[in-house]
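help with these tokens:
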Amino acid sequence: MVVIQIESGKIRGKIGVDARGEKFYSFQNIPYAAPPIGELRFKAPQPVQPWQDIKNCTEEGNESISRHFMTRKFIGCEDCLNLNVYTPQLQKNGKNLPVMFYIHGGLFMTGSNKSELHGPEFLMTEDVILVTINYRLGILGFLSLDDSSLGIPGNAGFKDMVMALKWVQKNIHHFSGDPNNVTVFGESAGAVAAHLLMLSPMTKGLLHKVIAQSSSALNTWVFGKRSAKLIAKTLGFSNSGDRKLVKFLQNMPAKELLKAQIKIDNKDFLENDYHFFGAVVERPSKEEPFLTERPLDIILKGNYNHVPFMIGYNAREGMAFDNIIPNRAREPYLKNMELSVPFSLNLQRGSKISKDVADKIKRFYFGNVEQNREENAIQYYDLCTDTCFLRDIYFSVKYQSRTSKKPIYFYKMTLETDLNIFKKLAGVTAPGVYHGDELGYLFKTIFTPEIVPGSVEDISQKKITKLWTNFARFGNPTPEWKPVQVDKINYLEIGTEMKMKVNPEPERMAFWDEIFKINPMLSKL
């Protein structure tokens, strides 16, 4: 056990052992904000209150109330604004370590910072500090109201992340961390959050590098909508006044809110290119805004935090689609190509132009044959990879390279070993790398197999961890990795060998370039 003093009081941690057998220090369940309960429900986080006694930080804290990503059981509670800090050193020897600030994925609906998926043992071998956070999910983190006087303009979950970054600025030196070298990284929804934090005016000076794994701020499922009245109606409340509605929702048990949230999100999944709970452009209010413009506008104007940016995807991410969308929605998605027409094109469903675009998508991915889920599995996976992940990652890189003052490093992961844990868990046998599979090389998990020294797993895990931590330390993963250029998307293929290439999936991305020329704004770019 070890005790240290931070800004809010003393905390007790414990000693762990990294992948090399060296010790590190673990401090878990550190509160970074006041519990967002009662009248603070749905609102921006408030500062944590100091404590007098030594706080025990040797056990993991509560995640946001949600359903577990595997068991689907209801878990967590509202008092969830906590973080973990893992550091290989506490001694003040003049060397402040780079800080890696991780945001978990889960569609802003599920997930946590727990070591079942995010164990620090691999990253601790590279002399960095790892911070993993919990933030509010679903309706608790992303409810937004029209009435700006009520203090619920939306994006509270993202503001949780900002509060956690402010905590890092004030406290990380107590763990031998460098507050002037903070890399925000995340996977899936966590990658969206990392990219949005880069674009937000709230984070100036709080982050110095960003890594977005398998998603970006331009992905079509990022945005939510103002849904308080629908939630309330689902719960039996019909009064139209926002003030009474807020009181009703603040007094409703959190588990009942979660049940209503799941009900309407599943029902509406196919009809919208957004979820009910995600980012919103905030209307003017007394609250400091997280987002005042749509991400594409921010990127095109260059009005964001210019820091080194690393972003990429896994080959055939779309294999995860079967596990992401509700069972009843899978077959209609395959049969009705209009469901693959991006809402960002602003085409009326059922219109001739929408049907024409749908027909182009069908012919491009499936040819003239009738789509069949089993017989066309690879084409189906590629379509889902592109529409859910890669297409908008590609557009993010393409547009941001034109305004960024700092380098952008792009990657494609093709590596398949026993550390691709999500693909193994899903039982998928098709070739390709599953959504989330890169996490098995960065974090030790409860599913991580024994790694044999000198094996492909051992060599690959060390290489990938080195790339990520080099970027955190220097802003450059490796001298051989060329950054993106305008109109030339250099990328590193991360396989059993590392190879520099140009323009990922060129035919598929050229197809989407043509499709998006329908949008007058994008056709000029």
Remarks:
- The longest helix spans residues 377-400.
- The chain has one domain: 2-523.
